[in-house]
UniProtKB/TrEMBL annotation:
SUPFAM superfamilies according to UniProt: Heme-dependent catalase-like
Protein family membership: Belongs to the catalase family.
Residue intervals passing through the bilayer: none
Organism: Streptomyces heliomycini
Alphabetic keyword roster: Heme, Hydrogen peroxide, Iron, Metal-binding, Oxidoreductase, Peroxidase
SMART domains: Catalase (SM01060)
Protein name listed in UniProt: Catalase
Pfam families the UniProt entry points to: Catalase (PF00199), Catalase-rel (PF06628)
Length: 483
């Protein structure tokens, strides 16, 4: 801000910012006190709607550096050369809590990353978990309603949470993950990130690969126990946000090593798990992690509202060489995010400083709307035109995908080894005895808050189907707690 006297919004100097204007000493306030009216009116409009999910978060800018050649898989320009760097913005979040909720809670963490590439912004909107609770976007609003506040009690209710999970057995894998040690990261710096969905990479020759992204924390994984988190959440609700800001302020820049799993397109149809089912991982033995980058966070935002609250990520923001997969969840998300932002921030959200392209510019024929900044000046606003306006390229960002059959409300296809429990059971069996004990204890504490037996029994039964021992122990622990 430049130096000089305090002014009104219109730039006129302000004489008195402490006393409003009255009719005589002690008299009522005058409408002609436009400074008072302007201040109260602006104050009344300070908030925008919080994100319907992931409302609570913290962000930072950084740098992505390519460390290995992946040009045989993708023609994305920002991945074209070893050593190439791209500016990024990453917003971490929790899912269920409101804007002012505590950070140290058991909840997945958002890991939303914007690459400001020379071919436009590429948004990878992932989580700190490789899988998710459901596999069809049509279930997402119902799922989130069970995680948020009950319409009658106004609180999160164990009945709703476990009712939905019990009736949606595909959630068993993600719930097992969530109630394990990684369910409460010690900070945003000490957790991994995942693209979670399968995405398409395509190379110059037009060959297609299905990929999954992994961001492994260089700080090491650190988690909080349920007991530690309860204390921290009460003492310092902003713990994770503060930790991130302070680390960057002291030059202790957090970083992640970036990997990709690559499946040649021809292998998708016969892979043992449906590669487009978000409740499943691809075991590394099937598709090993290929290291290709380093992500470092090195600059704090200067204004949280402008740069974090108004940041807008969309899984539909792709660049040439990268595209969606037929994952039904992802397809729903391709619509959901920009639509949410049109409501939450406005139709020109993508042109705010944090959201607009930094390494190129947006050249569209769209115009106007709330808070349009006039950036197109007098340029023509239609195509085709004879005035040298921007033109279509004729080259799609991603390759077409073959489809068969007729339209209909279809169930996600099941591959040879797919069922709702196999990977949850595998995860349980991978745990040490101590990890299993903590998992069962965390889950039992949560399930014991359920008021109806059939809801608790159904939820427990899902874990029994994942692993007999898991189910037995959980049942016993819940019984002990409920008396
Ligand atoms: C069909 C399923 C889903 C739908 C409809 C959905 C919808 C949304 C919406 C509407 C927002 C708020 C966007 C905004 O206001 O800016 C959001 C935020 C977010 N979602 Fe999803 N979501 C889904 C699944 C997922 C999955 C599977 C992941 C991770 C793999 C995910 C990660 C995130 C993250 C990280 C944010 C916060 C982005 C930010 O920091 O601004 N969501 N989601």
């Amino acid at each position: 801000m430049t130096q000089g006297p305090l002014t009104t919004e219109a730039g006129a100097p302000v004489a008195d910012n402490q006393n409003s204007e009255t009719a005589g000493v002690g008299g009522p306030v005058l409408v002609q006190d436009q400074l008072l009216i302007e201040k109260l009116a602006h104050f009344n409009r300070e908030r925008i709607p919080e994100r319907v999910v992931h409302a609570r978060g913290a962000g930072a800018y950084g740098t992505f550096t390519v460390t290995a050649d992946v040009t045989r898989y993708t023609r994305a320009a920002f991945l074209s050369e070893v050593g190439k760097q791209t500016e990024t913005f990453l917003r971490f979040s929790t899912v269920a809590g409101n804007l002012g909720a505590a950070d140290a809670v058991r909840d997945p963490r958002g890991f939303a990353l914007k690459f400001y590439t020379e071919e436009g912004n590429y948004d990878l909107v992932g989580n700190n978990t490789p899988v998710f609770f459901i596999r069809d976007a049509i279930k997402f609003p119902d799922f989130i309603h069970t995680q948020k506040r009950d319409p009658y009690t106004g609180s999160q209710e164990a009945d709703n949470v476990f009712d939905f999970w019990g009736l949606s057995p595909e959630s068993t894998h993600q719930v097992t993950w969530l109630f394990g040690d990684r369910g409460i990261p010690a900070s945003y710096r000490h957790m991994d990130g995942f693209g979670s969905h399968t995405y398409q990479w395509n190379n110059e020759a037009g060959e297609v690969f299905w990929v999954k992204y992994h961001f492994k924390t260089d700080q090491g994984i650190k988690n909080l126990t349920a007991e530690e988190a309860e204390i921290l959440a009460g003492k310092d609700p902003d713990s994770h946000q503060r930790d991130l800001r302070e680390a960057i302020e002291r030059g202790d820049f957090p970083s992640w090593t970036v990997y990709v799993q690559v499946m040649p397109a021809a292998e998708a149809a016969t892979y043992r798990f449906n590669p487009f089912d978000l409740t499943k991982v691809w075991p590394h033995a099937d598709y090993p992690l290929i290291e290709f980058g380093k992500l470092e966070l090195n600059r704090n935002p200067e204004n949280i509202f402008a740069e974090v609250e108004q940041s807008a990520f969309s899984p539909a923001h792709f660049v040439p060489g990268i595209g969606p997969s037929p994952d039904k969840m992802l397809q729903g998300r391709l619509f959901g995010y920009s639509d949410a932002q049109r409501y939450r921030i406005g139709i020109n959200a993508d042109q705010l400083p944090v959201n607009r392209p930094h390494a190129t510019e947006a050249r569209t024929h769209s115009r106007d709307g709330y808070l349009y900044d006039g950036r197109h000046k007098g340029a023509k606003n239609y195509e085709p035109n004879s005035f040298g306006g921007p033109n279509q390229t004729g080259r799609p960002l991603w390759q077409p995908v073959a489809v068969t059959g007729v339209t209909g409300e279809t169930v996600t296809p099941v591959h040879a080894e797919d069922n709702d429990f196999v990977q949850a059971g595998n995860l349980y069996r991978l745990m040490t005895e101590e990890e299993k004990e903590r998992l069962v204890k965390n889950l039992a504490n949560a399930v014991s808050g359920v008021t109806r037996d059939e809801i608790a029994d159904r939820a427990i039964n899902n874990f029994r189907q994942a692993d007999e021992d898991f189910g037995k122990r959980l049942e016993a622990a819940v019984q002990a707690l409920r008396g």
